[in-house]
Write a structure and sequence with these properties.
about 25% helix
Length: about 280
């Protein structure tokens, strides 16, 4: 990606309430050893900040409430170098995610959308040939609106998994999903290009269901997996937008994902993208 290009990220902005525990509770069970932290998060914000820290010029489209949490999350994005001009302020409370992380770094998440469900599609603007990265923690209508405004490269992190309108499905240049999301969206077997993440085993690229590239996972100390997929998505999108060889872009994205799980934050500190695999 050249300095003249801008990656627009459309997606959720949440306050993450993170409970770190030795072992996550089972159904009907209470555990009492939690340590609670409040962190900026949301898949959209996580990916925007990751892309900015990897060296891209990034603008964020999303929504927060007119509350202290919303102001703090906008400040966090701006501090990371993200253009926050197009973040909408709504009369709903800012979105919140309730996250439990166990000692292995595995997590479970409940998202309360709040302001993320109040994005005004008529206020969305994109460069006509600009690159776009989106997720599905916001309304499909919002993603459709953004995708319709540009003919540039469009990556969709289809998380959480859901059915997509045919026109939107055909518009996507790159789907990014994990194994469970791929299983829940059988149409992805016919998609032009899918990056399928495999956790510690790395990732594969599939063209119409046929593997065309594979990258191994990198050994690392796992502290938090919450932001790893978002860092991977940002890195892979930037690689494709820059015209990098797909296999190389995949390996580099896996390296970024490994760095992310070694960081306790959902928005990990990252080096410029070119330094990974250097």
């Amino acid at each position: 990606m050249t300095s003249a290009q801008v990656l627009t990220v459309v997606g959720s902005i949440n306050l993450d309430l993170v409970a770190r525990v030795e072992r996550a509770p089972g159904p009907g069970e209470t555990v009492a050893d939690g340590v609670l932290t409040r962190e900026p998060g949301g898949k959209g914000a996580n990916q925007a900040i990751a892309a900015a820290r990897l060296g891209a010029t990034v603008r964020m489209i999303g929504a927060v409430g007119g509350d202290a949490e919303g102001r703090a999350m906008i400040a966090s994005l701006a501090e990371a170098g993200v253009d926050v001009t197009d973040i909408q302020i709504t009369d709903a409370a800012s979105g919140t995610a309730l996250i439990v992380v166990d000692r292995t770094g595995e997590n479970s998440i409940v998202v309360c959308p709040g302001a993320n469900a109040r994005i005004d599609p008529s206020a969305i603007e994109l460069p006509p040939h600009g690159a776009l990265l989106a997720q599905l923690e916001v309304s499909v209508d919002i993603v459709e609106r953004a995708a319709s405004l540009t003919d540039g490269f469009f990556a969709l992190n289809a998380s959480p998994a859901r059915d997509l309108p045919e026109e939107l499905f055909e518009r996507v240049d790159l789907f990014i999903v994990n194994e469970s999301e791929y299983e829940r969206m059988p149409r992805l077997a016919a998609a032009r290009l899918v990056a399928l993440t495999l956790g510690a085993d790395g990732a594969v690229l599939l063209r119409e269901g046929v593997e065309t590239a594979r990258a191994p996972g990198l050994p690392t100390q796992v502290h938090n997996t919450v932001g790893a997929g978002d860092a991977f998505a940002a890195a892979l999108t930037l690689g494709f937008v820059a015209g990098e060889d797909p296999a190389t872009a995949l390996r580099r994205a896996c390296a970024v994902g490994a760095a992310a799980v070694a960081d306790e934050r959902s928005q990990p500190l990252l080096r410029p993208l070119a330094e990974y695999l250097a």
